[in-house]
Amino acid sequence: MSRYNHREAEPKWRDAWARANAFRAPAPNADGKPKYYVLEMFPYPSGAIHVGHGRNYAMGDVVARYKRARGFNVLHPMGWDAFGLPAENAALERGADPQQWTLTNIEVMREQLQWLGLSIDWEREIATCLPDYYKHQQAMFLAFWEKGLAYRKAAKVNWDPVDQTVLANEQVVDGKGWRSGAPVETRELEQWMFRVTAYADDLLAALNTLDRWPDKVRTMQINWIGKSAGAKFRFEIVGGGEIDVFTTRPDTLFGASFVALAPDHPLTRKIAESRPEVAKFIAEAAQLGTSEADIEMAEKVGIDLGVSVKHPFDPSWELPVWAANFVLSSYGSGALFACPAHDQRDLDFARKYDLPVKPVVLPPGEDAATFAIGKDAYTGPGVLINSRFLDGLSSEAALTAAIEELKKRGAGEATTQYRLRDWGVSRQRYWGCPIPIIHCATCGVVGVPKDQLPVTLPADVKIEGVGNPLASHPTWKHVSCPTCGGKAERETDTFDTFVDSSWYFARFTDAHNNDAPFDPQIAAAWLPVDQYVGGIEHAVLHLLYSRFFTRAMRDCGFLPLNSGEPFAGLFTQGMVTHETYKSAAGAWLPPEEVDVKDGAAIETATGAPAEIGGIEKMSKSKKNAVALGDFIEEYGADVLRWFVLSDSPPEKDVQWTDAGVEGAWRFVQRVWTAIDDHGAPAPQSGDAPPPGADAGAALALRQASHRAVTAVTEDIENFRFNRAISRAYELMNALPKSIGDDPALLWARGEALRLLVQLIAPFMPHLAEEGWARLGLPGLVVDAPWPAADPGLTQQNVVTVPVQVNGKRRAEIEIPKGLAEDKVREMALSHDRVAPFLDGLTIRKVVVVTDRIVNIVAA
Ligand code: ANZ
Ligand code: ZN
Fold it and tell me: What pLDDT, in 10s, does the model give residues 136-150?
């Protein structure tokens, strides 16, 4: 008997798969097989990966291997989301060359991912930072621009006045630049935008068709798109001019108390020219940054602008106009009328500045004479009061009537408003895809001609953290205009890296096409991705941008995919968590430097006491990540894959524990020992079992095996990997301890082990191959079709049958399926819950419907 040696077995089988080209995706519909596209969100090449990263790849790999065994042509590719800030930070901190740093990380990570034994078609590997990828992105951008799906406009950005650079929202910490610590300003810059809003309605409506997406993700997208029906109308300013507002509640117009403008509304700015206190207010509001969440959280403040407007239904009624920090300049028209009685923000503001609060909607069950607003606004429906011609109407009817009146007076109309904004894709950074545009003083904004693509990044840049290195490069931006030949300058902005990840899934379908992003027919045949696996943190932006891009690619003739939906199925996985440790001095300690015994921790090297912290998602910053390479060396990839998928449903977090790892390790050894003891041969699928002395035990084992096949199949289909794993444990437990030399039992055990190997193969592919070979089965288990359960063996052979007396249900009996009628009758009549009802009666008739019901007629 030998021990299973993963250090030998794992590389050996990976070589065997590579030699057999086992994971090379064929044409999507080769051999008349259906296609299946499995994709995990591609990683950012940050450097070494930890065991926690393994979980999401392991999930995708289970699906890919399973579908392959089910007879699908599977596409399961991998690549690198390779542009982005960390490479520039590495350049700043360590003088690294961003490209070199990125490509080296890719080398390291590719090798580590390969250790996991993933069934990836590595021939399709792509890196978004390479010109053979991004040149197609540049070409598509130009097509989008031609079609009006990309455009330029002045948009607000977070500006760091010290580093002279634009900051992403995540780089603004408490209103300050993350590196400089300087208070952030908002600035307007000319930016490239993608017209996501062109598809707002479709992006919303099509969510209904994505029935294999988690509900929570669909809900997040619905909220992000944020469709609001309402009205837009004009207030006339006393003394001339107009203010447009958007409202979802025109029914509350008679409860209007004031009008509020965004701090950078044109009128606010105009008034600021002559009133320094208004200018100061605008400057303070600008420090909040551009993040809506920050604006929402901030204390509501405002300033009276000293102008009034006329109520649209009564010109003699004047309302004051304020500027308020909670009004977003980019939503609706950047102005609103406030009805404090029925909107909480408005109420807080009105109480603070002592503005009128008049209820106009009476909640059901309240009395108009006594109803008053306290600290809480009433936002529900009701009946209109204090509202002249709307009085007595329901809020719903009043809403329609108010819009009618606005229309009649020529003041406004019904409208639909989306929260969704167009996508600003310009980044003032070096390590991104150059935007292929040239600015010419004579011709204006000119696209780089297609035959001059790609516009590549210069290698010789100085990255010093101030300004955009592309703008300060001595020569790169200076070119001649493709149209007039005069002196011109390149666009120095690069694309947001979300652009790179908005179409990579399509590139994988035809990854090395040199002339086009992909062949339209090939891409349309593989897409949509059948199963996408990734983190919930991408529930909104990445998924929405990809949905936009797929539509834009369709409408610009790149991709004949009618639905425009890139991902038919989506699964959002939970994280791997781990205890955290801290030294007495409060520094995070990596797990390998800590010994934990009986719930107490010490630093291994010094013996000094350490503190056990909370259980958190594995991360570099908390040092609680377990390095992938070390782990695989010690335990092997299969133990890792098995453990991270066991214990917890895949959508939930799983806690990394030494005990759990040990458990997975012991299971690997147990499976191996059972297989090794049995040895060859194992029966192949379809072989007939021999007769044996102990047919009962052999049959029971065969039933356990075939039920495991049914159960694991269902569990994998339904993303219940943890349950599939516990079925494998059950099947192991069902193996008899000793079988003597009964041929039937020996045969049944061989079958059980063969099926077990096939069922664990998607999870522990190396061990499965080793076991397959040891059982003397032909070829590779990756090439074996998924096992089919024999229905004769999986059927439950006990049924529960109700017993009725004169039509009333009195008892239930458990009987073997197909039990003879006279036996059933006997059991029913003698049942101790039935007999009392027959006391003193004569039995007239007993009807037995086999396996269904027993009916006793007595009088
Ligand atoms: C008057 C009113 C009365 C409102 C009432 C609500 C309740 P959603 O649902 O998100 O679309 N609003 C309009 N423009 C705004 C802006 N630029 N920034 C912040 N708030 C703005 O919200 C629409 C409501 O948000 C609008 O309806 C408006 O306030 C406010 F009892 O108008 B409402
Ligand atoms: Zn020109």
Answer: 999 999 999 999 999
Supply the DSSP symbol for 363. Answer: P
Taking Cα atoms as reference points, which of 563, 497, 413, 464 lies closest to residue 133? 497
pLDDT of residue 163: 77
Q: Which two tokens stand for residue 71?
A: 């007879």
Burial of 802 (0-12, 13-18, 19+ CB in 10 A): middle
CA of 347 to the centre of ligand 1 (A): 13
Atom of ligand 1 nearest to the CA of 377: 31
User: Would you state the structure tokens that stand for residue 608, as one six-digit string?
Assistant: 């000094």
CA-nearest of 387, 383, 382, 362 to 372 is: 362
- Nearest protein Cα to ligand 1, atom 9: 228
Tally the residues of the chain: 859
Q: What is the pLDDT of residues 154-180, one digit of tens each?
A: 988 888 888 777 877 767 778 888 778
Nearest CA to ligand 1 atom 11: 228
My answer on whether omega of the bond before 214 falls inside 30° of 0, hence cis, is no
DSSP 78-90: -EE---SHHHHHH
Say how far apart CA 655 and CA 652 lie, in whole Å.
10
- Residue-wise over 386-424: b if at least 16 C-beta within 10 A, else e? ebeebeebebeebbebbbebbeeeebbebeebbbbbbbb
Ligand 1 site residues, Cβ closer than 6 angstroms: 228, 246-249, 252, 262, 327-328, 331-332, 334, 336-337, 339, 342-343, 417
Q: Residue 699: its pLDDT value, please?
A: 87
Q: How far, in Å, is the centroid of ligand 2 from the Cα of 515?
A: 27
Helix (H) or strand (E) holding 66: helix 53-69
pTM of the prediction?
0.86
Could you count the other beta carbons within 10 Å of the beta carbon of residue 25? 22
Q: Residue 422 Cα, ligand 2 centroid: separation in angstroms?
A: 29
Pairing, β 35-40 against β 531-534: parallel
| Residue 285 dihedral angles phi and psi, to the nearest 5° | -65, -35
pLDDT at 288: 73
Q: Ligand 1, residues 244, 249, 300: which to mutate, most atoms within 8 A of Cβ? A: 249
Q: How close is the Cα of 724 to the center of ligand 1, in Å?
A: 50
Show the low-confidence residues of the chain (pLDDT under 70).
1, 170, 289-291, 692-695, 797-798
pLDDT of the residue at 298 = 83
Q: Which residues pair with 345 in a beta bridge?
A: none
Q: Are 459 and 99 a contacting pair, CB within 8 Å?
A: yes
Q: Which ligand is nearest to the CA of 488?
A: 2
End-to-end CA distance of the chain: 71
pLDDT of the residue at 155: 87
